[in-house]
Amino acid sequence: MSNSNIKSVRSSEIELKDKLVAVNRVTKVTKGGRAFTFSAIVVVGNEKGIVGYGLGKAKEVADAISKGIDDAKKTLIKVPIINGTVPHEQLGKFGGALVFLKPAAHGTGVIAGGAMRAVLESVGITDVLAKSKGSSNPHNVVKATIVALSQLRDPASIALQRGITMEKVFNG
User: Fold this and answer.
1) Apex CA 76: angle with CA 84 and CA 74, to 5°?
2) Distance in angstroms (rounded) separating the CA atoms of residues 43 and 164
3) pTM for this structure?
4) Are 83 and 106 in contact (CB under 8 A)?
5) Cα(168)–Cα(172) distance, integer angstroms
6) Cα–Cα distance between 85 and 91 in angstroms, integer?
């Protein structure tokens, strides 16, 4: 995710809610038997435009989740939300996962599958049409969704970048 548009945010100054996306049990076979560990991918957000994801690994599920939450707080980004939806259509790709986000009218709801839904609800998007193509691996889908969200731009930042007024952004 080497993108210049990513704006990092400090987690100490905001109230974050966490959502567990997936827990995976990993088995290591040793001569003493099977050793189980757990990995958990977690999404945190304040439902007002800030979101992050993290991966935690531990011998207990609860420890893996708490490690994932701590990791997620280190990767927070700010996402522009206009009237509860995304400002424009956006594609995001990570590994084999490809996600597509499209603005939706008020009252549509979050039309998205498992891992994408957790990210979109955590960021505070209430109306969006989303499609996940390619890999359904939750790790890659979450990362592709974060990539797509980090590439979103609001009209004010576009006007500032181009050095034009807001009316010219909309009217050409």
Assistant:
1) 160
2) 36
3) 0.87
4) yes
5) 5
6) 15
CA distances from 71 to 42, 43, 55, 56 (A): 9, 10, 6, 7
pLDDT at 4 over 60: no
The Cα–Cα gap between 66 and 81 comes to 28
Those residues whose C-beta lies under 8 Å from the C-beta of residue 168, and which sit 6 or more positions away, are: 159
Task: Give the H or E element holding residue 33.
Answer: strand 33-45
- What integer best gives the mean pLDDT of the chain? 90
CB 20 within 8 A of CB 44: no
Q: Are 162 and 65 in contact (CB under 8 A)?
A: no
pLDDT tens per residue across span 97-149: 999 999 999 999 999 988 999 999 999 999 999 999 999 999 999 999 999 99
pLDDT, tens only, 43-69: 999 999 999 999 999 999 999 999 999
138 close to 91: Cβ distance less than 8 angstroms: no
C-alpha torsion 17→22→23→24, nearest 10:
-150
